[in-house]
Amino acid sequence: MAAIKLLGLDPGLRFTGWGVLAVDGNRLCHIADGVVAVAASGTLADRLARLYRGLEVVVATHMPDEVAVEETFVNRNPVSTLKLGQARGVVMLVPALASLPVYEYSANLIKKSLVGTGHATKDQVTMMIRTLLPGAQLEKPDAADALAVAVCHAHHRTAPSRRFDPAALPKAVKVAAKVTG
Which of 44, 56, 120, 130 is the most buried (most CB within 10 A)? Predict the structure, then answer.
């Protein structure tokens, strides 16, 4: 079996972390990591467009086989939660439009897969990523979180229920997507 390339994404409107791994059986190999940084200025639509274009570059550059995304964490502030949800929609849209399978994982499952507890701190997650993937740059915590998503997916990738399958969309949605795309 040949190695597959996984892209992990940690959605954010200001910083979206990304991390790419090669997985061959139980072996994990760090390929790249970073963030798509979007300036806090400008309209929400402009910021989402910049996020979209930045993620397009990441997907086109690294050509992953599968993509894993962290599920949205609900904040106390409903406005922030809504904006994060919109950014997460863009994060899921980019790989879906590239016909890549997209999988989703909760923050607790990601932490438990790496550290052994679902309530691990960011420092614990970063330490485990540095241990598992010694070549990781981790310029921002968001990149460590994205690599954690990718590692979690490497461990759980046989579970088909976590996959977003564009073929499962109703026919009317597929037709509308073709007309507008």
Answer: 120
